[in-house]
Amino acid sequence: MRKSSVAILALLALTTAGCGNNGSQSGNINGTWVANLSDSNGEVDDLVYSFSTTFTDTSNNGLSVTNFTFTAPGPCFSPCTSNQYSETGSFTLSGDSNGNVVGAFGMTITTIFPSANNVLTLNGVVSGGTITGTWTASGLAGCSGNGTFTINPSTAG
Hints:
Blueprint: H1 2-16, E1 31-39, E2 47-57, E3 62-72, H2 74-77, E4 85-95, E5 101-111, E6 119-127, E7 130-138, E8 145-153
Antiparallel strand pairs: 1-2, 1-8, 2-3, 3-4, 4-5, 5-6, 6-7, 7-8
């Protein structure tokens, strides 16, 4: 009985070792993330937007976006302060019995003006602890563009 209890506890420890609230864990988006959005050329020096934020997976494919901060606000958001835009997101997770976890990711950042808004839309996939995809920007004069993005878990402690 004692050997089987030890074996069960060891198996349980191995099973739960991958759990936690760090976004770098496969299948867990919860945590602080850093995003870099490049223009359609995809060059590192073509960085258009960058931001950090905290994602929390909610029920029904929802994604709570908090602590959002532009580190490079780009042409659509540079004249705005953080209380002049809002963020929403979605996250859907799927996988197979081999532990391969992937998910669909969506996020929209919108300026809050009484009339026309500037909108930054991200659509991508979560795989291997990284979110990648494409973005588009639209809105008032000077706010347009598209490209690719990469969002990684923050390494800041």
